[in-house]
Amino acid sequence: MRLLERMRKEWFMIGIVLAIAGAKLEPSIGVNGGPLKPEITVSYIAVATIFFNSGLSLKTEFADCRLHASPCVFCSDSNQGGRWK
User: Residues 20-48: pLDDT tens digits?
Assistant: First the structure.
């Protein structure tokens, strides 16, 4: 039972080791143009997932504050941009 508890606690590290071992055994899966399409998955899907997870971890009060401030920043930025023409 202790091994199962340890695996639950260290699930991320176990996943990384399994991913590295899988890449070592079958590198053709991750090659450019391969079935994983790393040129698409890494550049778009992985980055979008990272930002989405970061957004989910924000506190609600902080997110509300940022949403309130965003229109003010956009308006002031566009007004100042017209001044320099």
Answer: 999 999 999 888 888 888 888 888 888 99
The CA-based dihedral angle spanning residues 32, 38, 42, 46, taken in that order and rounded to the nearest 10 degrees: 180
- Using CA atoms, how far apart are residues 37 and 42, in angstroms rounded to an integer? 8
Contacts of 35 (CB under 8 A, 6+ apart): 29
23's CB contacts (< 8 A; 6+ apart) are 29, 30
Q: Which residues of 42-54 are buried (b: 16+ CB within 10 A; e: fewer)?
A: eeeeeeeeeeeee
CA trace torsion 51, 52, 57, 60 (10° rounding): 110
Q: Which helix (H) or strand (E) holds 66?
A: helix 60-83
9-23-42 Cα angle (round to 5): 85
Q: pTM for the whole thing?
A: 0.49
